[in-house]
Every structure is written in structure tokens, then in C-alpha cells.
Amino acid sequence: MEIYLDANATTPVLPQARAAALAAMAEDFGNPSSIHSTGLKARAVMDGVRLRARRVLGASSGQLLFLSGATEGIQTAVLSALSSLRHGQARAELLLYGATEHKAVPEALKHWNALLGLGLQVLAIPVGRDGRHDLAWLRAHAPRAGLVCTMAANNETGVISDLDGIEAALADSRALWLVDSVQALGKLALNLAGRRIDYAPFSGHKLYAPKGIGMLYVRDGAPFTPLMAGGGQEGALRAGTENMSGIAALGAVLTALEEGRSFQDKTTLAVYRACLAAALERAFAGLVFNAPPELCLPTTLNFSVPGLSSKLLLDLFDAADVRVSGGSACSAAQAMPSDVLMAMGLPAWQAASAVRLSFGPAADAAFIDEACARIRACGDALRQSCLSPGQPSPELPAGGVTRFVVDGACCYLLVDEGSKRCIVIDPVPELTGSLTQLLSCHGHTLAAVLDTHSHGDHASSAGDLRAAVPHLLEPGSVDALGWPLGAEQILLGALRLSRLALPGHTEDSSAYLLHDAQGLRLAFVGDTLMPGALGRSDFAQSAPMSFGASLLSLARAIGPQTLLLPGHDYDDRFATTLATEIAAQPLLAGVLHGRLDSAGFAAAKAALEQDLALTEFQTLACGARVDEGRSGGNASLHQLAPAALPALLRAHPDLLLVDVREPYEQGLSQTPQLGPAVRCQAVPLSRLVNALPGWLALPPGTRVLFFCRSGNRSSQAAKALRRLGHGQAWSLAGGLALWPHDTDLAACDPALAI
Ligand code: PLP
């Protein structure tokens, strides 16, 4: 059973609303503008719903229009207000909106302000740490404002605005006032006609009505300009035949709200939220809530967990069939902080790792109990994966290389399972907590913490890590990059790490070469050579004239197909080889094939690095990329449509399926069952580099199909393998979310060591 905790995004349609919509399509299907009996019946339905809505919203006066949703309501209100400002006597200077407003509001303000040629200044009203508007600021600016837009309750945090305080702050202003009331419907008594509010948009799908139906309240006397002109519907205020099935469904929801049978009261909802909050706090050590509960809707919780990204938490919840929402847009390598939480002044980590959990007033105790049980299971899965304090699961793979990425900067953990010794390469401060946690949970001892060079874009946290985790080295017995003084190599059980000096990117740049019983296994090359880029060499600590010679000495030390793990990976390529980079980078080919000497190489490289812009993470670019990045190339070439999977399995019995989800997800979810004939491997994306050499050694025609929860991570894996030369790497589009129901899959083999 799916536990849907994303009601602030949308809700399912209430059974009685579904029935009403069906009746409006099958029986009372008339056009309310027709004057025959079928039309009159439809009009009666519509009038009845409008009357009910007026009662629920406290809108005994003013206009109440049906339209497609809140976004249309916001456009209509903004167009109306701005049109009146354009023709008005007193010249307004400002358009104000709350800093935590839904995007629809500031975007509409900017759009219509430009389109109508008003040129007014659009300013955000600051909010405090509690998410509420700064009323003193508003009071000071309101007299110069033509329109003020605030919201009744925030969609991300649930913070309820102080509408009385805002109204008082507008006392000396003639500004029009728009209140986005989307999240308030059914949860707050608005008493619209009793307030100064000029415009209030609503969306039906946030309260168990279908998508495509909304309402806009317009105060008597407030300026109005129709967004759509045409057949004169809605008293010529909004043209277009009315969405009668949507209106009928909304009517059924409003009836349920008035009768109070289908919805819980505020006190019960607050008890439910407290249960969920307690389950979350027990499941996730160090969890913090991002808004004060006493100021929030009783149906919304917004939280962050130190050391756990919102992407990780979303994947975790989704694996447990719990649907929640990230408070921020994010991808595997990048976390964009939530604008709402940043506006509230929350620390960047909190704003970037927020998760929103929201339920609707139709929730019941059994649903909340099940939600709490699943949250507890998520906490257990994290503990078994050593991402939270606890005991690791016996099946958890730990040996080999695990990769962590923070804003494109790569950090590697190299573990020898036999000796339980490990080495961390290029640590970043953001990972100190989770690495400490991971190593102590596994009982690993640090043999070394190494940097490949002194970094320009971030500080090394080697010292913090050495202080936090048991290690084998005496203080002061290592050099600036963490290499043991006087040592030729570092032994890690059967593994051996040697060092190769590669001055260029910086004077002290080094590569660390990993050998096992079979010979050279892979190399950590820092920023000397990255996928699609050579490390920049225009820093004060760079050695540009030595760079060419360093590349030659790297080429002598490794083979063309040796796996190279970079210090930065801005485009999710994971690893590279000299052969791949020679083909992609003419400059590299030039120096390695003797066409460029050191000086020629340095000059060409300096030209390439001129005016290097910041990366998309707003950090210093560590190299000039010469081939297409994340958005380049034919993005869908490697995607397999879910419907094509059964035929592919039949046509290619040698197909290798690879589950790239992390162990905590694999443990939580029920994986589809498939016949034993299908070859299937479990290789978490964080440990992908261990498996790359094996896949590259497969016969060229062997198809490798990666899958994950949503198709995002599998797409990265397929593209990385293709770039390295295996042309038959595929990603299952839509992942397990769109997995064909008639195709089962056996649990995949997690055993994969370096
Ligand atoms: N305003 C708020 C506060 C919202 O939460 C939303 C939807 O998330 C909207 C406006 C836009 O609503 P719709 O997409 O239904 O038009």
C-alpha cells in the first residue's frame, strides 16, 4: 500500500467527488449557458456549488469565479490589479510579494509588469526565521505599493501568515491585496468578506477535487480585467464553457467539509502530526524541524537531517512506498537550496536537505499508524547501512571504493574488508560527519587521509577526519597531503597505494595508484585529468610549465584503459581512461603524441582557461571543459522505454540487469521477481566504479540495462559506461516507478568487491 504524504502537492479525488464528477459527465452533462432543461439542470448544480463555496469561504459578497486553478486565479488577479494601476491616477512605485510565496505569484507579477509596460519595482517582503512576514518592513513600504501579494499558508513549510497583522500593516496604504489561499482551503477559516482582501485564488486539487478546477474570489469594488474574453460565461468575467465535472466534484468536497464527516478536526490533525513528528525524530538522529509547529498548518512537517541529503531521504521514503517531497530541487550531484527556507534565513545545509511531509484532512488513524511504522522502517534501514548510528547489516558491501560527491567535488573511501583498514582520498568538510559515522559503524581504521593536491575550491577536512576516527598514524608523521613521511607506499591488506607526483594543476598535485595482486587496478588522479577537462593551471600555486611533462609521466605509469578517478566530476561521468580523454581532448592528445612541447601546451591551455566561469554549483571551475557537459549530446539515446523490457529480455538472454539503488533502498522495497535465468547485479551508484572494469571487459554486444527508482541514477550509469566505450549500456526510463507490471525481477546479487 502506498502511503501518500505529499498532499500539499496534490491529493487523490474523494470518492463522493469522483461520483459527482461522473454524474456531471454522464447524466447532468448540460452546458450551463443553454436555456433548455438539460442546461438549466447544469446551471442549478453550478449555482449550488458557488453558494456552498461562498459559505465555506465566508464570501457572502464579492465575485466568486470558477476557473482552471490557482495559477489562473493569480494571473487574473495580477492582470486586474496591474491594469488598474496602469490607468490609475495615483502612481504606485512598488509591487510587493512575500519572500516565501509560490513561484506563480512573483512570476505573474514580473510577467504582467513587463507585458503591460508598467516598469514598477517588484520587491520581496522579507520574512523572519519563523517564516512570517516582516510587518515593520511591510508597513514602511506599503504606502508606495500598488499591489501586495501574500499567502494564507505556505506550501513548503505550512507556516500560516498573520493576516490580521498584514491587514494592519496595510492601514496607510491604498494598495490592492492578493492572498494566495491555496493551502488554506479546508484547513483555515478565511472569512474573506470580513477582510480587506481584494483577490483570493484557490485550487481544487489541493483538497480532494480533481485538477483543472479552481476558484477566484474578487472583492466587491476591486478592479477586474478578464484574462479570457469570449462567450460571456461567469458573468463575462471568465469566458469558456465551465468545467462542470470539476465544479460538481468540488461541490462534493465542499459538502463533505460543511458536514464534517469525511474530514478530521484541527485537534485530531495536530495529534496525527505529533505522531509523525515523534516517529521522524526517533528514526533520524539529529533531525530538525524547519518551521515552528505552533505556527503551521497541522498537516505539514518540513525537516532536515544533518548528513542526509533530501535526495537520499526521498529515495529512502520512496523505497518504503512513502511519497514525500523534497523541499528543494535536486539531482544526484547537486542540491539546490529551497528559496523558501533560504528566505527564512536557515543555514544552507538545512535549506538544501529539506523534506516536506504533508497529509490531507481526510487522513485517519490507521493511515497515520502505517505511515509511522514505515518511517521507523526507514530509520532501521539507514542504521543497517551505517548512515545512522547502529549495527551494519551483515550483507552490506563495504570493501572497495565508495564515491561521495559534494557539488561536483569527489571524495573516495577505499576499504580493505579483510584488514578493516581504509583510506579516504580528497575529504570535504560536508562529509566529515557521515564518514565518521560510516567508519565507526563498520569498525574500520583509517590508514591514511590523503589529498591529491591543495584544493582551490574547498578546504580539505583531513585534519577533522583524523581527529574523529581511530587512525594508525602518529600526528606529524605525514606531509601536507597526508602521505606518511618517507613512505614509498601504503599497504591496505592485499591492496597497495603508491604515489606519483604530477605538478601542473598545483605544484603539489599527485596521483595515487592502486595495485592489487593482479597489478595496477586504478588511479586517483585528482584534478590533473578530469572527464572532459584538464585541471586548470592559472592559480598562484599552479605549475603550468610542468603540466605537459606530468601528463607524459602519468601516461607512462598507467595503461590507456586504466580506470582514472577524478577529483571533480561535474557531469556525472564517474571515471575515465586515458584513451577516452585522448579522443575527447585535442590538447591532451597533442602533448601525449609529441605535437606540443611544454611551453606550447602551457600557452594553449592558458588560452582555453581564459575567463573561466564559475561552475553550475557556483564554485570555482577546476578545469576548462572541452566536451559537451550534462546537457550535451543526444540525451535519450541510452533510454529504454519500460514497455520494451519484456521483448528485450526475450531477445537477449545474456542481458545483464544492474540495480544501482543504494543498499538501504534495496532492503526496504519489494523488488519484482524474475526467473533465475536473468542475470542481475546490485551495484549501488556510489560504488559504481568498482564494477566498471568488469562491464568494460564484457563482449561488446552484451547489453547492460541499469535501473533505479526513477531512472535518473540509472541514466547516469548508462551514459558513463557508454562514454568509456561500452555502446550497449541502457537505462530503464522511469525506473521501478514505471516497471512493467507483467515483468518480474529476482533480487540482484549484491556481492561485488574490488
Ligand atoms: N499557490 C500555492 C501556495 C500552491 O501551493 C500552488 C500549488 O502548488 C499554487 C499556488 C499553484 O496552484 P495550481 O498549480 O493548482 O495552479
From TrEMBL:
<keyword id="KW-0663">Pyridoxal phosphate</keyword>
<dbReference type="Pfam" id="PF00266">
    <property type="entry name" value="Aminotran_5"/>
</dbReference>
<dbReference type="Pfam" id="PF00753">
    <property type="entry name" value="Lactamase_B"/>
</dbReference>
<dbReference type="InterPro" id="IPR000192">
    <property type="entry name" value="Aminotrans_V_dom"/>
</dbReference>
<dbReference type="Pfam" id="PF00581">
    <property type="entry name" value="Rhodanese"/>
</dbReference>
<dbReference type="InterPro" id="IPR015421">
    <property type="entry name" value="PyrdxlP-dep_Trfase_major"/>
</dbReference>
<dbReference type="InterPro" id="IPR001763">
    <property type="entry name" value="Rhodanese-like_dom"/>
</dbReference>
<feature type="domain" description="Rhodanese">
    <location>
        <begin position="651"/>
        <end position="743"/>
    </location>
</feature>
<dbReference type="InterPro" id="IPR036873">
    <property type="entry name" value="Rhodanese-like_dom_sf"/>
</dbReference>
<dbReference type="InterPro" id="IPR036866">
    <property type="entry name" value="RibonucZ/Hydroxyglut_hydro"/>
</dbReference>
<protein>
    <recommendedName>
        <fullName>cysteine desulfurase</fullName>
        <ecNumber>2.8.1.7</ecNumber>
    </recommendedName>
</protein>
<dbReference type="InterPro" id="IPR015422">
    <property type="entry name" value="PyrdxlP-dep_Trfase_small"/>
</dbReference>
<keyword id="KW-0408">Iron</keyword>
<dbReference type="GO" id="GO:0051536">
    <property type="term" value="F:iron-sulfur cluster binding"/>
</dbReference>
<dbReference type="InterPro" id="IPR015424">
    <property type="entry name" value="PyrdxlP-dep_Trfase"/>
</dbReference>
<dbReference type="InterPro" id="IPR001279">
    <property type="entry name" value="Metallo-B-lactamas"/>
</dbReference>
<keyword id="KW-0411">Iron-sulfur</keyword>
<dbReference type="GO" id="GO:0046872">
    <property type="term" value="F:metal ion binding"/>
</dbReference>
<dbReference type="GO" id="GO:0031071">
    <property type="term" value="F:cysteine desulfurase activity"/>
</dbReference>
<comment type="similarity">
    <text>Belongs to the class-V pyridoxal-phosphate-dependent aminotransferase family. NifS/IscS subfamily.</text>
</comment>
<dbReference type="InterPro" id="IPR020578">
    <property type="entry name" value="Aminotrans_V_PyrdxlP_BS"/>
</dbReference>
<keyword id="KW-0479">Metal-binding</keyword>
